[in-house]
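Researcher: I've been going back and forth with a colleague about how Succinate dehydrogenase [ubiquinone] cytochrome b small subunit might be arranged in three dimensions. Neither of us has a model we trust, so I'd like an independent prediction. The organism is Ramazzottius varieornatus, in case that matters for your notes. Sequence below.
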Amino acid sequence: MLPFTLRQLAHRGATQGWRCIRHDSGRMILPNTIRPVIVAHRSAAGGPLTATQSSPTSHGSQVHHDHVNHWKMDRLVDISLLPIVPWAFLTDSVLANYLLILTVGAHTHWGMESVVVDYMRPRVVGKFGYYASLATMYVLSFATFAGLLYLNYSQMPPTKAIKKLWSL
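Model: Here is an independent structure prediction for Succinate dehydrogenase [ubiquinone] cytochrome b small subunit. You can compare it with whatever you and your colleague have in mind.
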């Protein structure tokens, strides 16, 4: 049970702009504007409405993934690209090129991983298709990262290669 009544909940919702959604089963659910989800329902005997607190995992998948830390790390890499890209192009530094390879590699890997996880779901392409596309994405990410490291090591850094392409 929650420490407030439904009347207080309705008042809070009215003052803060929450909308209640009523289902056919007689349950009122507040949308995902607050966490955890608060559900109001009638008891089986038809008594007064009571408010209960549902667990956050009851509405999502059964497997828990730490998407918050992944999102934070992805944003950190995205923001770090802003100074690294001009620094690598302006200085032709080996360190700047290695940092550029690391951040661009992580950025593209996580982006493609999100695409594969979102669009190549096991329900759509089957388990084999999902794991095959995920494995292919990992192999291509590793090959791209290794190729860029080799390119930087063999005296043709990616920034110099891009500058040569631009000069054509």
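Researcher: What would you highlight for our discussion?
Model: I'd start with this: The two ends are 71 Å apart (CA to CA). After that, consider the following. Residues 13-18, 33-37, 56-62 have pLDDT under 50 and may be disordered.
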